């Protein structure tokens, strides 16, 4: 095991770091985000394995770095920067759909239809054809769900347009190039 760690940890860390750096840069600049998003997330997780094995093997030498004030300053600066992003990013955490779905399911079909690029009558026809009980275009998905014995979020999901594989993951309001 020690030979494997010694022989492969640094090359794996180097290779996976380069992949992470390239994919992270591509994501930052919104270049082919569909290609890089999953790669970046998964291979960054894989990078942790050789990193921790390398750290474990060199633990005594690693601790020597903390005798130097520059290591403590670098760690402190890194955590302050991370905290600053956490406090100012505007993300409250969790899945944003959990906050959006209740707003959409309480909207009448007349208000929801333009968001789905359909007419209210088209939504009524589509929902009725799918077996849901709809009384009027002023019904909400919550009302339709209650009348049909279903979950409003499931009805909303059935109405949303299907995205063709590899959906884009965007940060901020900038559109990809």
From TrEMBL:
Highest taxon of the lineage: Bacteria
TM segment ranges: 12-29, 41-59, 71-89
Keywords, alphabetical: Membrane, Transmembrane, Transmembrane helix
Protein name: DUF4405 domain-containing protein
